[in-house]
Amino acid sequence: MLNQMNDPDALRMKGLLCAAAGAIAFSGKAIVAKLMYRYGVDAFTVVGLRMLLALPFFTIMAWWASRPQGGVAAPTLDMRTWCHIVGLGFCGYYLASILDFLGLQYISASLERAVMYLNPTLVLLLGVVFLGDRPRPAQVGAVLLAYAGVAVVWLHDWDVAMAPVAGASTAGLGAVQAMTVGSLLVFLSALSYAVYLMGSVTLVRRIGSSRLVGLASMVACVFALLQWAVVAWSDHAVVAWLPHAPSMVVLQAQGEGVAGLPWEVWSLSLVNAVVCTVLPVWLVMRGVQWLGPQLASQVGMVGPLSTLWMAAVVLGEPVTWRLMLGTGLILLGIVWLTRAGHRHTR
């Protein structure tokens, strides 16, 4: 049994399964959010419930990672480190989440995943702009290929925008306007997470990835819950002072708050928090531990494909050859970019 646990092939297989399962589970949050929108909740409620239910798990994760390891105490956190953690939590987990879920009110889950998987290209571009990095020709080609894939997916959704996807919400905007706004919001979400990735490198080396994820996620949970409370209070104020407020605001404010939400919303929120947020974090960390970051990230490319098929089965979103082509170009571009960067650093 011990030999089997230490067998490199067995560990590699476990790593592959964990990395793939983590990517699929994390990609499922777009599907869950789309289902929750059908019950009339807004993006702030979706994020607030997600963070509320995930907070205990992230607290346990942060505590566990902060325990002494092998008799060696974990590094102490000074005020500068705490400010760094708060900034990363705000940018990488809070802001990226709220922008992503806001964008999902306007665009399909497949397009959302396509845009979100541009993270590696945005990290490269940020390095060029702010750090003076010089990309290699292969990296430039990979970036262009990935963005060409997003363009194909975007144009596909443009053509079907006049026949709204099942479960989509345009929040009073025209179909084309909604798609443009949603794409921009999700792109800003990907950019925000790319900033987090760049800013977390030095801190990960000092306090460890598990501890950073736990603490930064706790910070994000606090920000999300505070925002949810402010938005809920604002809705009640609008109803109190403006009797002719929009019907959706009145509907949400006249309810019994959190207790008045349908049980389906609570069930989906629990899935969103545990299956699509906390569990993927643990699975991806295990995948990185057994495979290494490069191979684990490449296995994670299964995410957009899984979203495409989950959206088709659960939400009824169309799957066409152009959608498959665009998704394939994105995956090929990201794999090419990852390999080009790896060869450059060896």
Comma- or semicolon-separated keywords:
single chain; 346 residues; mainly alpha; 15 helices; globular
Commentary on this structure:
The chain is mainly α and 346 residues long. The protein has one domain (40-67, 76-260, 304-345). Helix content is 79%, strand content 0%. The protein is built from 15 helices and no strands. The chain has helices at residues 2-6, 8-37, 43-65, 79-103, 109-116, 119-130, 137-160, 175-199, 201-207, 209-241, 247-253, 263-291, 293-299, 302-315, 321-345. Helix 2 (8-37) runs antiparallel to helix 12 (263-291). The chain is globular.
Which helices and strands appear, and what pairs or packs with what?
Blueprint: H1 2-6, H2 8-37, H3 43-65, H4 79-103, H5 109-116, H6 119-130, H7 137-160, H8 175-199, H9 201-207, H10 209-241, H11 247-253, H12 263-291, H13 293-299, H14 302-315, H15 321-345
Helix pairs in contact: 2-12, 2-14, 3-4, 3-10, 3-12, 4-8, 4-10, 5-7, 5-8, 5-14, 6-8, 7-15, 9-10, 10-11, 12-13, 14-15
